[in-house]
Amino acid sequence: MKYWLLLLGLVSTYALGQVEMKAIPEVITEIDSLTLKIRAEGIEGLERPDLHQIEQHFDIINSQTNSQHRSINGTVESWVDYSYKLRPKSSGTIIIRPITFGRKASNELTITVKPIDDSTRRQIEESVFFETELTVDPVYVNSQTIYIRRLYFAPGVQLYNTLPDGPELQNAVVISLGTPSTSNRIMNGRTYGVIEQRYAIFPESSGPLAIPESSITSSVRLNQKGTFRRTSIKIVAPPTIIDVLPIPPNYPRNKPWLAAKNVEISEAWEPKKLNFEVGSQISRKITITAYGNTAASINPIARALGQTSLKRYPRKAQLTDVTSADNITGKRTETHTFVPLQQDTVSLSPINITWWNTDLNRTEIAHLKEREITFYSHEPNLVERTTTSKKQVADPLKQNSLAEEELSSSPSADPL
To answer: Which ranges in 69-220 belong to alpha helices (H)?
Structure first.
């Protein structure tokens, strides 16, 4: 009981809290920064301020929080100091409405951001800037365009933070095309260092697709009326809009949509022949290559054997993407193992892959021709050999007997 009385007495001695907000300085130019200080006294000061309205007008460069407690003549005081370094996003008069902590509110602030003069603006724009480019625009849905972002900077410019990341898009697949490249270029008689980033973008729905702005902070040395000063500048790559086209109306509606610069289909047999012994294992590997698209865009090969003279054991398809500076090449590889069950001649149907040529804007077909394969056993061959040379019969008979023994001793499960 004594404990609770003591605690209540301690709480009652807290000083009544208030919230104070100030900006240092209150008048700046659009390339300067200011410090916003908020002091929240009393218990309410333990809360976090809502900075939504501030973030609409300023970039928060850094922040600090400091809590203090003190007791004077039995009166306990506590407060929290919040300090934010801000950089304006644009010029104009900015009014910061009172910030609340519980039932208490701060004062209102008016900050004036003056535009820089034309000479200073020109110095900045000629010292460091972004350039963006789309290799294909408009682009078909689920097809490739390359987004290129180049940062130009003159000698003496210092880059403070890392390069911006690749664009984050909800309705598109974005793939980085390697690490940023560096080079030097001369523009208007001035040498610039150039850092280039490349991203392959595959829109997943038609309509406008917005790439948001990106930025980096740099330090630029400015000459303002004969006085040199170095200032921190935020350099922005403006947003980019991609015009995404739907599937063309003349593309076959009963075929999977595949858009690429080129599509190839090839096959490889192991053993490398088209006549095989009954009971042997045959491997057929079919590879579909799409230049300018990913392996995930290539649909599985639809085919049915329909023969009873062999068994087929499919393996899991392998999907591989190969990136270069200006392209993605996707490969889908399907491998099937066949086991002939009896002597026969089997025809494997041709394989056709319908695709859209993004360079020529037309429908094309990648074709793998029909294959005829023959299955045989050793028995006919042995009879033929005995009629020509009795001396040659012994070894083949022995080898065939061993081969049959090995085949019969092997398990009948999936050879994979």
So the answer is: 118-127
